[in-house]
Each structure stands twice: as C-alpha cells, then as structure tokens.
Design a protein that fits this description.
Elements (H helix, E strand, L loop, with lengths): L1 E2 L6 E2 L15 E7 L15 E7 L5 E2 L4 E2 L9 E2 L4 E2 L4 E6 L11 E2 L1
Parallel strand pairs: 9-10
Antiparallel strand pairs: 1-2, 3-4, 4-9, 5-8, 6-7
Length: about 110
C-alpha cells in the first residue's frame, strides 16, 4: 500500500511482471494506451487500445519476423507483416482483436 502524505488514503500496489524490451536496433515501445476513451480512433472509428513503437535507430528496421503477445504460453500469437519502421518514425498497432496484418495498412493485433 502507498500512503499519500497529505491525504489519509491507501492505494493498492500491484507487482508488475518483468518485461523484455525490444532488442533489434533501437526500437522502443514509446506509448501504450490500455483504456482508449477517444484519444485516437482506428479506421473503423472505434476507440481501440493501441501500442506505439518508435525507431530511434539510424537505419530502418523491418518487423516482418516480429511478434506481439499477451500470453507467455503463446509467443507466436500475432505477427507483424513485412513492415519497415524508418529512422525517427513511429508505428501504431491497435490491440483491437481484429487481427489485421497487411503491410501498408492499419495494424490490429
């Protein structure tokens, strides 16, 4: 529990499981929206959760062999299409369950 010094309230603290960072080049998960209440709509006008990946490297990185998963028992759950992130670019992947993995199109895991 965390206790705020100016208030008499307690907040529960949940231990987070360890995560591995992206390792090829300098790719970074720069933002993660887990409860999208209208900050960014997908092409269907829906408020899907999303993950933003940033390429901080000086060269393009192809994600063709990369995967996203929320299940450590299924590391092959969703695969990126043959998609390159150019240096300094961002890529948004919606966590909508729509399973769209077409290069050049909006990506949905």
């Amino acid at each position: 529990m965390i206790r705020h010094a100016s208030r008499r309230c307690s907040l529960p603290v949940e231990q987070l499981e360890p995560r591995c960072l992206l390792t090829a080049g300098n790719l970074v998960i720069s933002e993660f929206m887990a409860a999208n209440n209208g900050s960014f709509d997908d092409e269907d006008g829906q408020h899907s959760d999303w993950i933003e990946i940033y390429n901080a490297d000086a060269t393009a990185v192809n994600l063709g062999d990369w995967r996203l998963t929320d299940d450590d028992g299924d590391l092959e759950k969703w695969g990126f299409p043959d998609t390159a992130i150019q240096p300094g670019e961002y890529l948004v992947v919606f966590a909508s369950g729509k399973d769209k993995a077409i290069a050049g199109g909006e990506l949905h895991t």
